[in-house]
Design a protein that fits this description.
99 residues; mainly alpha; 5 helices; 80% helix
Protein backbone atom coordinates (compact mmCIF):
# COMPACT_ATOMS: atom_id res chain seq x y z
CA UNK A 1 0.00 0.00 0.00
CA UNK A 2 1.87 3.00 -1.25
CA UNK A 3 -1.03 5.43 -1.20
CA UNK A 4 -0.76 6.28 2.50
CA UNK A 5 2.01 8.90 2.06
CA UNK A 6 -0.16 10.72 -0.48
CA UNK A 7 -3.18 10.50 1.83
CA UNK A 8 -1.11 11.82 4.74
CA UNK A 9 0.19 14.70 2.60
CA UNK A 10 -3.33 15.64 1.49
CA UNK A 11 -4.62 15.49 5.06
CA UNK A 12 -1.64 17.56 6.21
CA UNK A 13 -2.32 20.20 3.54
CA UNK A 14 -6.01 20.40 4.45
CA UNK A 15 -5.32 20.70 8.17
CA UNK A 16 -2.60 23.27 7.53
CA UNK A 17 -4.99 25.33 5.41
CA UNK A 18 -7.71 25.06 8.06
CA UNK A 19 -5.28 26.11 10.80
CA UNK A 20 -4.02 29.04 8.72
CA UNK A 21 -7.57 30.25 8.03
CA UNK A 22 -9.34 29.51 11.33
CA UNK A 23 -6.65 30.01 14.00
CA UNK A 24 -6.01 33.75 14.32
CA UNK A 25 -2.35 34.66 14.70
CA UNK A 26 -3.02 36.85 17.73
CA UNK A 27 -4.79 34.06 19.57
CA UNK A 28 -2.13 31.54 18.60
CA UNK A 29 0.60 33.93 19.77
CA UNK A 30 -1.18 34.52 23.10
CA UNK A 31 -1.52 30.79 23.65
CA UNK A 32 2.09 29.97 22.80
CA UNK A 33 3.46 33.08 24.54
CA UNK A 34 5.85 33.89 21.69
CA UNK A 35 5.57 35.26 18.16
CA UNK A 36 4.17 32.78 15.66
CA UNK A 37 5.07 32.24 12.06
CA UNK A 38 4.85 29.68 9.32
CA UNK A 39 6.74 27.06 11.36
CA UNK A 40 4.23 27.07 14.21
CA UNK A 41 1.36 26.49 11.77
CA UNK A 42 3.33 23.63 10.19
CA UNK A 43 3.86 22.11 13.63
CA UNK A 44 0.16 22.48 14.47
CA UNK A 45 -0.82 20.84 11.17
CA UNK A 46 1.69 18.02 11.71
CA UNK A 47 0.30 17.38 15.21
CA UNK A 48 -3.30 17.42 13.99
CA UNK A 49 -2.52 15.15 11.05
CA UNK A 50 -0.65 12.66 13.19
CA UNK A 51 -3.40 12.53 15.81
CA UNK A 52 -6.03 12.09 13.10
CA UNK A 53 -4.01 9.26 11.56
CA UNK A 54 -3.65 7.45 14.87
CA UNK A 55 -7.35 7.93 15.70
CA UNK A 56 -8.33 6.62 12.27
CA UNK A 57 -6.10 3.59 12.63
CA UNK A 58 -7.53 2.81 16.06
CA UNK A 59 -11.06 3.27 14.80
CA UNK A 60 -10.48 1.03 11.82
CA UNK A 61 -9.12 -1.72 14.02
CA UNK A 62 -12.14 -1.85 16.31
CA UNK A 63 -14.21 -4.97 15.96
CA UNK A 64 -17.81 -3.84 15.71
CA UNK A 65 -20.16 -0.89 15.87
CA UNK A 66 -20.90 -1.37 19.57
CA UNK A 67 -17.18 -1.10 20.41
CA UNK A 68 -16.95 2.13 18.41
CA UNK A 69 -20.03 3.51 20.17
CA UNK A 70 -18.58 2.68 23.59
CA UNK A 71 -15.31 4.40 22.73
CA UNK A 72 -16.96 7.42 21.11
CA UNK A 73 -19.79 8.31 23.42
CA UNK A 74 -19.63 9.06 27.08
CA UNK A 75 -21.68 7.44 29.79
CA UNK A 76 -24.47 10.02 29.59
CA UNK A 77 -24.89 9.67 25.84
CA UNK A 78 -25.03 5.86 26.07
CA UNK A 79 -27.51 6.12 28.92
CA UNK A 80 -29.68 8.56 26.95
CA UNK A 81 -29.62 6.20 23.96
CA UNK A 82 -30.62 3.25 26.16
CA UNK A 83 -33.44 5.29 27.72
CA UNK A 84 -34.72 6.26 24.25
CA UNK A 85 -34.72 2.62 23.16
CA UNK A 86 -36.51 1.53 26.33
CA UNK A 87 -39.13 4.26 25.85
CA UNK A 88 -39.75 3.19 22.26
CA UNK A 89 -40.10 -0.45 23.33
CA UNK A 90 -42.55 0.48 26.09
CA UNK A 91 -44.64 2.55 23.67
CA UNK A 92 -44.80 -0.29 21.16
CA UNK A 93 -46.04 -2.70 23.88
CA UNK A 94 -48.79 -0.33 25.02
CA UNK A 95 -50.20 0.07 21.53
CA UNK A 96 -51.47 3.30 20.01
CA UNK A 97 -52.27 6.08 22.43
CA UNK A 98 -55.90 7.10 22.81
CA UNK A 99 -56.88 10.73 22.39
Amino acid sequence: MRSWPAAYAILFALIFLAAWVFVPGGYFQTTLKHPVGFGEYVTLAWLGTSLATVAGALGASLEDEETVREASYGYRQRRRHEDDNNYAEDRSKDGPAER
